[in-house]
Design brief:
Layout lengths: L9 H12 L24 E17 L3 E22 L2 E19 L2 E9 L3 E11 L4 E10 L19 E12 L3 E12 L2 E4 L4 E5 L2 E11 L1 H7 L6 E12 L2 E3 L2 E2 L5 E14 L2 E14 L2 E14 L1
Antiparallel strand pairs: 1-2, 1-17, 2-3, 3-4, 3-5, 5-6, 6-7, 7-8, 8-11, 9-10, 10-13, 11-12, 12-15, 13-14, 15-16, 16-17
């Protein structure tokens, strides 16, 4: 059965569109770029990271159905392991990311979307530093993230932790120190999506065009200020940031769903070493605009990183 554009309008269409846009609600947070993420550690170093991510969305924008009030709450946990090594006299990192969690209270207008839970799609990546110059506080890296389509997925549900398709994200990252207390982090990525050939109750083919994203962080070393309150505190940093994404138009059996991955988001992050090998991170974010997806009103990311 072929979907028509007229099928995507009205209450039934809202539910069908919501299924397609559930892709935007899945835990992409595992790839989120935090300050200093792409400053390399010495070869032989391992890092284990644990994330807790909460996001609340209160609006839904779609080129077919328009903008309407909505709700979606996501509770995502992420386990991440990194190993640093050296090849051809350059540092590399191997990275394994395993998300899981719950998508709850899904609703668009008067259409209830139910909930989804289980394992997200795991992500494997390898990163390589083209420039690693601590004397100039300059680091340039390239990384490829590959998403494996083995997470929890049910074609009859609007909300899923897995998305039933391959995905590849190629990312370039630059970190540059500015004077004694400031650091600038910049990143750009290009994401290519495979097809989901089991999309929705009619088991149709969902396709998505390439999308593009960019991150920027400006960080200040606030260790001296923190140590005025707590003399034995570890190194501490305060960052303000921005994230933007473009493209990613979706079609269902060749017909546009109105879904895209266009978003503008502001962020603030505080990082501190609790011990010399244990770092804590808290990050808040808010969507300034979102097109073709859920608009996130509030986001919270908590992260612990253990170095060994």
């Amino acid at each position: 059965m072929r979907v028509r554009e007229s099928d995507l309008r009205g209450p039934r269409g809202a539910c069908l569109v919501a299924f397609c846009l559930a892709l935007a609600a899945t835990p992409a947070t595992a790839l989120e770029y935090e300050p200093f993420d792409w400053v390399p550690l010495p070869a032989g170093t391992n890092v284990v990271m644990l994330y807790s991510v909460y996001a609340h969305s209160n609006e839904f924008d779609n080129e077919v159905t328009g903008t309407t009030q909505a709700r979606l709450d996501s509770y995502i946990e992420v386990a991440r392991y990194l190993h640093y090594g050296t090849i051809f006299n350059h540092t590399f990192v191997l990275d394994v990311i395993a998300p899981f969690g719950v998508l709850a209270n899904g609703q668009i207008g008067q259409t209830h979307l139910g909930s989804g839970s289980g394992a997200g799609d795991p992500i494997l990546s390898v990163g390589y530093w083209l420039i690693n110059d601590p004397s100039k506080k300059r680091y340039l890296s390239a990384v490829a993230f590959v998403t494996l389509p083995v997470g929890s997925y049910d074609h009859d549900k609007a909300l899923n932790l897995g998305v039933n398709r391959w995905q590849n994200d190629t990312q370039v990252d630059l970190t540059q120190g500015l004077g004694s207390r400031y650091t600038l982090d910049l990143s750009a990525d290009w994401t290519v999506y495979g097809d989901n050939t089991d999309a929705g109750p009619m088991r149709q083919t969902l396709r998505q065009k390439d999308s593009y994203g960019a991150y920027a962080w400006l960080t200040r070393d606030v260790t001296s200020e923190v140590r005025q309150l707590s003399p034995h505190a570890g190194k501490a940093y305060l960052s303000v940031g921005w994230y933007g994404s473009w493209g990613g138009a979706q079609t269902l059996n060749g017909v546009s769903t109105g879904g895209r991955t266009e978003e503008q988001q502001v962020r603030v992050t505080y990082q501190q070493f609790i011990t010399p090998t244990l770092e804590g991170n808290i990050s808040l974010n808010h969507d300034v605009s979102a097109n073709g997806q859920f608009k996130q009103g509030f986001g919270l990311l908590l992260r612990l990183a253990k170095i060994f």
